[in-house]
Amino acid sequence: MNRKPTASWQTFNIFNIIFLTLLALAMFLPFLNVLAQSFSSSEAIVNGRVFFLPVEFTTINYQYVFSDAAIWRSFGVTVYITIVGTLINLVATASLAYPVSRPEYAGRKVIVVMVLITMVFSAPLIPNFILMKNLHLVNSLWALLIPGAISAFNFFVMRSFFMQLPNELIDSGRMDGCSELRMIWSIVLPLSKPVMASLGIFYAVGHWNTYMNALYYINNPAYWPLQVKLRQLIVSEDISIDPSATQFSGLAHMDPEGIKMATIIIATLPIVLIYPFLQRHFVKGMMVGSVKS
């Protein structure tokens, strides 16, 4: 029997919709302003006439960004660490989470406590830097891939998922003569696609937005990811114009703010475009391990 919503419940829904709408606008309108400035002329940007729509529409800012080899190099570095780093994360996390989830593993409780400690107490920056230096990882892309190979939070999510797998499937695989690796590849991983997809997205977004580790450990501009390159453009008082790029009409008279905004859009757009298609995996990632039958 369906009950009619009460007046107080309807009032709550109205205020909830208004609040969420205002919150969404507070997040979306700044991005819309950045997008509008990236397509506006330098005069309009300098005079403060750009709000949410481009003024004197132009693509000259994107022409400069696309002609800058350093930005493309940083974009390639970001794509590389996102793909390779995510694969390393998933393999490392699954390699630790699966054996710890099995009751026959004698040392699982000790491992869980050790991982839990890392969530509460994190190592200071200076010891981390000394460790990276002694391992010869400074000025290497491995400094962006190895230290965060396993996230403690993602480890517990994956471990919880593995613990929910029926023991009968594992036992039947062993009775059929499967080795542990064959059982993981043929039985466990096919059943773990939801958690792998969810955590893969979490890891990929983290690698795409990597900034602090690159700022600490990477001094060579050739290895800068896109976020560090973007930071250099934002804090720079003057953006030098590449003489080879003057083939574009009026390029030497651009406003640096327009170039910065165009770079921000290029750095943000891939995640914005991918997220709607993968949103359901985010929801699954939050629900994985939360309900047991």
UniProtKB/TrEMBL annotation:
It is a multi-pass membrane protein. It is found in: Cell membrane. Keywords: Cell membrane, Membrane, Transmembrane, Transmembrane helix, Transport. The chain crosses the membrane at residues 12-32, 77-98, 110-130, 142-162, 183-205, 258-278. Residues 75-278 form the ABC transmembrane type-1 domain. Belongs to the binding-protein-dependent transport system permease family. PANTHER family: ABC TRANSPORTER PERMEASE PROTEIN MG189-RELATED-RELATED, POLYGALACTURONAN_RHAMNOGALACTURONAN TRANSPORT SYSTEM PERMEASE PROTEIN YTCP. This is Carbohydrate ABC transporter permease. It comes from Paenibacillus aestuarii.
